[in-house]
Amino acid sequence: MAGFGKWLAGGLGWAFGGPIGAIVGFALGSLFETSSQTTTTERTTATTESDFKLSLLILIACIMKADGRIQKAELTVVKKFLVANFGEEGALEALQILKNILEQDINEQQVAMQIGRHMNYSAKLQLLHFLMDVAIADGAIHTAEEAMLTRIANAFEITKPDLDSLKAPYFKNSDPNWAYTALEITPTATNDELKKAYRRMAMKYHPDKVQELGEDVKKSATEKFRTINEAYEVIKKERGMV
């Protein structure tokens, strides 16, 4: 276990069982052999840092396999993402696990449903945020990747406005109304409605909502929080609001 310290530091809760447990068990080999003989059901504890991170790796694999093939360039992109979010050491550990996960057949629906049952809404939003970062890292979200993201979001029971809000910042250069979509309002919203929407979204994406998932995840959540602030400032500037 010491070889995967950064990815198993929080201990496994509900991810120990079910389809995620089977995938991770294969990926980590003998690490789970003894425990798997005595534990056959999913735990129902709160989401740990390790639950979140291992779920992320499995879903990254789903995104990479979305078009039916895995290219070397994709691994390079994913490595950059992992280094940026989890540091060099964490990225190295993650890539070792990910390469083994990629060798397996993964039913993303089963995996996403397991996550959906056990992970709170804020954590699922952050998980989708990470996946979008991976999908867009090569400059565009391709059709197969977008379809995969939508299926995962549906399994998570993420609302369409929330999904659109997550996507909006990635289209700043092509969608003049991206800031409104990010705040889940339309350009016809009044200034009072704008202020209310900003407060609601700022609360929804506050980094403290995912603090139990570790500093790396909280740091990334801070970026989404800043995007909400940016969207608000863009609209205020357009409207000449103080």
Measured as a percent range, the helix fraction is 55-70%
* Percent range for β-strand residues: under 5%
Gyration radius (Cα, Å) is: 19 Å
Largest sheet: none
User: Please, how many helices?
Assistant: 12
Order of helices and strands: HHHHHHHHHHHH
- Please state the overall shape, judged from the principal axes of the Cα atoms: globular
Mean pLDDT: 86
Description:
The chain is mainly alpha-helical. The chain folds into two domains: 1-157, TerB-like (Orthogonal Bundle); 159-242, Helix Hairpins (Orthogonal Bundle), CATH 1.10.287. The chain has helices spanning 5-8, 18-28, 33-36, 49-64, 72-102, 108-118, 121-136, 143-156, 160-167, 178-182, 191-204, 215-239. Helix 7 packs across helix 9. It is globular. The termini are far apart. The model is unreliable at 34-42 (pLDDT under 50).
